[in-house]
Amino acid sequence: MSDINVNTPMENLTIGGNIYTSGNARDFKTGDWRSAKPVYISENCKQCGLCFPVCPDNAIPVCKDTLQRTDFNYDYCKGCGVCAKVCPFKAIEMKEEGEE
Amino acid sequence: MADEMKKPYNLKEVVATKPSRFTEGHRMCAGCGAPVVGRMILRALHEEDHAVIANATGCMEVSTFIYPYTAWTDSFIHTAFECAGATCSGAEAAYKSLKKQGKLPQNKNTKFIAFGGDGGTYDIGLQSLSGAMERGHDMTYVCYDNGAYMNTGIQRSSATPKFADTTTTPAGKVVPGKMQSRKDLTEIMVGHHLPYVAQSIAVGNFKDLYEKSEKAIYTQGPTFLNVLAPCPRGWGYPTDALMQINKLAVDTCYWPLYEVVDGVYHITYKPSKKLPIEEFLRPQKRFKHMFAQGNEWMIEEFQKEVDKRWQELLDLEEMTNRVTE
Questions:
Q1: Tell me, what's the ipTM?
Q2: Burial group, residue A91, by CB count within 10 angstroms (0-12, 13-18, 19+)
Q3: Domains of chain A with CATH codes
Q4: How confident is the model over B144-159, as pLDDT tens digits?
Q5: Would you call B16 and A59 a contact, using CB atoms and an 8 Å cutoff?
Q6: Contact between B70 and A19 using a beta-carbon 8 Å cutoff
């Protein structure tokens, strides 16, 4: 499905514009929209759980077994900063994209 | 249902163990409030259940379903502005019939959910929503209310609060922004005498939103959820302030959290200290003109309207609970 692009001839498109795969938006990386980057400072993190449900882009992975968050998934993070603003422990710092 | 409700809500467990049915890679704006609520609502589905989702035209539809990509892991129907209620109810009726005929597995459970923005729900889709609810289909309609037609460039809708500056109600010397009051859709839905109607928001640990979604989805019959979903672009606040705006919306009682079960009101959050409405208005550029000198009357009027609606809600809660006791 994801190999269909603007240059695909009409006759190769799916009938009715149907999409047969599930959740394949994951193949579309939105990380390059970002102009600000959240940086995870794990030593400040108390695993309070305030940041991961507020991410509009599901870019904060949570481990199934330990129920703890891990580093950002920069493939999708759009750099909105909602997570950094809700963090009470300064465990997320917003930096300009490209800055180290 | 009673057994499932006994298990206390645990945010981390819900997020970690329930797969996201609304994936990353969608093209909503950075900091948008809608995917946050959409994802949490779908997490309230039981893992073994399949869902059919119909979506009215709006931000959420056009940016999650851009051919050839879909951000939904369940069946999704891309429908027109006025049709989410009709489409979803039709799918539900077809499913019921096919199941009865033995053409679909008897042991599989499918839930029907329609999503619409405030434009597609309060205005354009109101008739099909009302029809679907009245016919009693087993479905849940979710309105994510961002208070204007954000998708097409911030035109006013009937969900836009009074005095808000939008591209079709520009605030200036003559016009003070939108001149009419906001329609109260949740009350209109209560008027349909549905088994479950609720108003919610993404706040704190999302317990309110999750539990209401679960109740809405797993209550037999037509149910309705109205969820406020702030829009940084249309409301004019920094993209990172989503959760603060949400909190202010409930603490000023601009967006009361309540549910109506079989006609009985239950307010699920009463702020210990009700904040003045300025707190909610100030961070948003769409209300900037209300703080200009000489425009104090706008804030006063806004406050009066909020107070009036809050008092009405408190009265309704008291009245409906008294009757049933």
A1: 0.93
A2: buried
A3: 30-96 (3.30.70.20)
A4: 999 999 999 999 999 9
A5: no
A6: yes
